[in-house]
Amino acid sequence: MFLVFVLLISPKIERTTLQIIKPKLSILVDNSKSISHFKEAENIQNFIYKLKNDVSLSEKFEIENFTFSADLKISDTLDFLGSETNIYKAISGIHKLNGEQKVPILLLTDGNQTVGNAYEFLKSKQPIYPVVFGDTTKYADVKVSQINVNTYSYLKNKFPVEVFLNYQGIGTVKSIFSIYNGEKTVFSKEIQFSRKEPSQILTVDLEASKIGVNYFTASLEKIRNEKNITNNTRNFSVEVIDEQAKVLLLSAVLHPDIGLLKKAIESNVQRSVKVSKVTEFKGNLSEFQLVILYQPNVLFTDVFTKIKKAQCNLFIVTGTNTDWALLNKQQFGFTKNFLRETEYYGVSYQSSFSTFLQKDIGFGDFPPLKDAFGALDFSTEHQDLLVQEIKGLVTLQPVLSVLEKEKQKIAVIFGAGIWRWRAISFLRSGTFQDFDQFIGNIVQYLGTKKPRAQLEVNTERLYASNAVLNIVAFFTDTNYKFDDRASLEITVTNIKTKETTTRPFSVKNNSYQSAIEGLLPGEYRFKVAVLGQKNTAYGNFKIVDDQIEEQFTHANVTKLTQLALGAGGALYYKNEIDLLIKSLMENNEFDTIQKPIVKTQELIDWQWVLLVLISLFTTEWFLRKYFGQI
Q1: Exposure winner among 228, 403, 430, 442, fewest CB in 10 A?
Q2: Half-sphere CA count of 100, side-chain side, radius 13 A
Q3: Which CATH architecture is the domain 245-446 placed in?
């Protein structure tokens, strides 16, 4: 009975053990072609070998291995074939993996970044220790640093090309700068550089004389004793068109959004925007491919009558000046149960949107829009690219919707203040391109009466040699819903050699994607086909012999030093491995942590006790049975 009593009580005890947690050490290695260009591949591998085989370092740290070029990889395999370098993205990726932990990062690189945000200004809670690989000697060098040019030009017009030229050296030098269209020289000028004037900015006006995509090469002649001439040349392209889409923007109020919409739309010279007060417009709506109604109010009454007759495509932007009572009567497929109050709301991107291809450009970080308070109702099928996010809560109420009503296409932004979006987009990326492309995608969808194609393909016009060609296709069913059941393939043909390459597509993020590598420089045409169907799309692109990873003459010690200072680390050179290891070992911030683990255990293992009791009772029963007591 005593055992039964103890079993029922089930006494417990607590046992404390110490778990030893070693601090992490992230080794982040540049796996791009620039490392092999500087002939540092063997040096960087030897450096890593010494780090991994240092007993004291292995005892103190849990070592994690990463490589990067365009993207971050959890790996220690190196081939130094990466065609792009994004140091900012690699460090940010490690930050996300480590969270709030204080993890030192050893960055083994030449410091030359070809894509991404400026890494030297990156704010890091984790100390970064750059280790410099590459030539630190600066040689005399001239280069074409950057070319700014519009994507499109109108036939027989002049289009500006802005060229940034740079010189690194001591004395005064001269070079000839030229622009070629194929074999033809379309511009040439002698340029003089000196230590006091190391930069030149040229603006060249070229004539758009041939319809279609025109390819150009900008080049600086080699100067005396110049070691690297790869960066003396850059390629660019311009598509020449012979017609423009006309867009009409009507408003009864003054607002920064109006100027923003005009700039964003006209950033593509295929489009022109006429802005007019609604009370002053006397023209014919049929002259325009698209009409934008900005915060329509009672003054739009006559225009609404014309719109019903013309059945023109509409882009509507609402706001606090919108007359919702009037707008609700227009039968555009949506109404709002509005109140006389206003509200601000942020936005959330909807990856399921499939009316046209639009990537997330950071919509969730954009400032809130302002509109009348109330819930929206739709009487026509619609798709939402953006929905409301209020105090971190994502709702089903749309911010940007598109709908088709008979022969009319309509897009609506429910809220004013998108001018701030363009400003934030520029501050974050240094360019208006992403935002202007977003507005351009809406205008392109609305600007045609033609039936929408089920298959759309996005490619660049120019690719650098040895770069990965990421081709994105978008395929829908007959109801224009994204169809992930199809099989797509792309066939690429070299126009000169007729050699073909065929690759399949895979479904990723509501699109079909294919990566093509190994194509030689030259002009190519492509065909994307949906297997078993008649849907096809065609296009052209050019691969140019631009080895961007080989355009650097020395390691960028200045930026790496700035990164180290800002991140609380220190800069080291490839021959200072002993100093680096000593610094890590002596740094008390990276000590081992002893974490107590408390475990509650049963004082008596009741399962064994129960087994013993059953055994005893069973034995007693058999004995009694045997001796006849039962």
Answers
A1: 430
A2: 0
A3: 3-Layer(aba) Sandwich (3.40)
Element (H, E) at 269: none
Mean pLDDT score across all residues of the chain: 88
Buried b (16+ CB within 10 A) or exposed e, 578-600: eebbeebeeeeebeeeeeeeeee
Residue 6: per-residue pLDDT: 57
Q: CATH 3.40.50.410: does it fit domain 23-137+554-590?
A: yes
Question: Given this model, what pLDDT does residue 597 score?
Answer: 66
The domain defined by 455-544 folds into Immunoglobulin-like (2.60.40)
Q: Do 53 and 77 touch, CB atoms closer than 8 A?
A: no
Print burial letters for 401-422: b (CB count within 10 Å at least 16), e (below 16): bbbbbeebbbbbbbbbbbbebb
DSSP state of 486: -
**Residue 45 CA from chain centroid, whole number:** 31
Residues of the chain with CATH 2.60.40.10: 141-240, 455-544
In whole angstroms, give the CA distance from residue 351 to residue 357: 10
Residues 6+ apart with CB under 8 A from 58: 52
- pLDDT at residue number 287: 87
Residues 6+ apart with CB under 8 A from 253: 294, 295, 297, 321
Report the DSSP beta bridge partners of residue 513.
472, 506
Is pLDDT of 531 > 60? yes
Token pair of 262 as six digits: 């005009």
pLDDT reported for residue 616:
77
Cα–Cα dist 566/518, whole Å: 39
SS3 content of the chain, % helix, strand, coil (to 5): 25, 40, 35
Which residue, among 107, 127, 111, has the nearest Cα to 51 in the 3D structure? 107
The per-residue pLDDT for 451 is 65
Order of strands across the sheet with 393-405? 271-277, 245-251, 290-294, 314-318, 408-414, 393-405, 382-390, 334-349, 369-378
| Homologous superfamily (CATH) for 141-240 | Immunoglobulins (2.60.40.10)
Q: Are 315 and 248 in contact (CB under 8 A)?
A: no
Higher-confidence residue of 453 and 168: namely: 168
Render pLDDT for 228-263 as a digit per residue (tens, 0 to 9).
888 899 999 998 877 778 999 999 999 999 999 999
Helical H segments across 139-281, by residue range: 256-266
Question: CB-based contacts of 400: which residues, under 8 Å, 6+ apart?
Answer: 347, 384, 385, 386, 411, 412, 413, 414
How many whole angstroms separate alpha carbon 61 and alpha carbon 26?
Answer: 9
pLDDT tier for residue 623 given thresholds of 50, 70 and 90: confident
Does residue 571 have a pLDDT over 90? yes
For the chain, give the percent of residues with pLDDT over 70.
Answer: 92
Which residues fall within 8 angstroms of residue 544, CB to CB, at 6 or more apart?
A: 215, 217, 235, 462, 463, 464, 465, 521
Give SS3 for 305: helix
Q: CB 602: neighbour CB atoms within 10 A? A: 12
**How far is residue 343 CA from its own chain's centroid?**
30
Question: Lowest mean pLDDT: which of 12-16, 364-368, 414-418?
Answer: 12-16
d(C-alpha 277, C-alpha 436), whole Å: 24
Q: How far apart are CA 570 and CA 127, in angstroms?
A: 8
DSSP string across 390-456: ETTEEEEEEEEEEEEETTEEEEEEESB-THHHHHHHHHHHSSSHHHHHHHHHHHHHHT--SPPPSEE
